Amino acid sequence: MTDPDTASGLVIVDKPGGWTSHDVVARVRRLARTRRVGHAGTLDPMATGVLVVGIGKATRLLGHLALTEKGYDATIRLGASTNTDDAEGEITATASAAGVGDAELAAGVAALTGRIEQIPPQVSAIKVNGERAYKRARAGEDVALKARPVTVSAFTVTAVRRTGDFVDVDASIACSSGTYIRALARDLGAALGCGGHLTALRRTRVGPYILDGARTLDELAADLAVLPIGDAVAAAFPRRDVSEDDARKVVHGGKLPAAGLGPGPVGVFGPDGTLLALVEEQGHGARPLAVFAG
């Protein structure tokens, strides 16, 4: 049985290194005593930081939260490429980065900022003919993935360390859903002619949920802090308060008139402040994406 006070809501986890996102979900399932748990946006095992986990009805939010902007602190090593584009892979090529100056680095970063076309890493969860790309790549296949449009709204170099043939670049990055920081590291190294890969990654933000509000698994084991589903929606999406008549409509799956709060999901709340649904405005109407009351 699940404690009714923790039946639906979000848990903002500070994921430890070496854990998969699935490992974290499994741990939260045990802590919350329910199998109805999921996460909004995978973090690689090497990465740490914000992983948004949903419990109960809040799992219906996760697909929408996964589409929000994310923030990262990353370290990129210039001077070596790997087959996974990060430090967990095998080095496939090296070339001295000692000659990469600050101006060249700044130009390379600027070229990867804004709306760009990005080819995902071969070792990724993207499906190719029904099979995960990483399975094909690990079987020795050269996987050809198509470039996808992503937006890197900020790519700010915060520190540069030069050691022999390597240059380690610390950066803070804000980007759209679907952006691979590993691929940014790879492409920066390729553009500078020396290769590059990711050596550290910490996610600092998923939409409105930031690292300061995240808790470690040990902290959650002592006190499973759950953000109520209504508070979670109000933090992440525009809020719309409706009348009793409109509340009855949306609870039964009916459309509401558009209120000019889109694009994107809008949280609908009843007269008593209870979360009723997420809706999406299309033309003159707003259709339910997920109904939480009733």
TrEMBL record:
GO terms for molecular function: RNA binding; tRNA pseudouridine(55) synthase activity. The keyword tRNA processing applies. Coiled coil: none annotated. Belongs to the pseudouridine synthase TruB family. Type 1 subfamily. Keywords: Isomerase, tRNA processing. It comes from the Bacteria. Residues 182-223 form the tRNA pseudouridylate synthase B C-terminal domain. Residues 29-181 form the Pseudouridine synthase II N-terminal domain. HAMAP family: TruB_bact. This is tRNA pseudouridine synthase B. The gene is truB. Residues 237-292 form the tRNA pseudouridine synthase II TruB subfamily 2 C-terminal domain. InterPro entries: PsdUridine_synth_cat_dom_sf, PsdUridine_synth_N, PUA-like_sf, PUA_sf, tRNA_psdUridine_synth_fam2_C, tRNA_psdUridine_synth_TruB, TruB_C. Responsible for synthesis of pseudouridine from uracil-55 in the psi GC loop of transfer RNAs. It comes from Actinomadura rayongensis. It catalyses: uridine(55) in tRNA = pseudouridine(55) in tRNA. Its EC number is 5.4.99.25. It is an enzyme of class 5 (isomerase). Transmembrane segments: none annotated. The active site is at D44. GO terms for biological process: mRNA pseudouridine synthesis; tRNA pseudouridine synthesis.
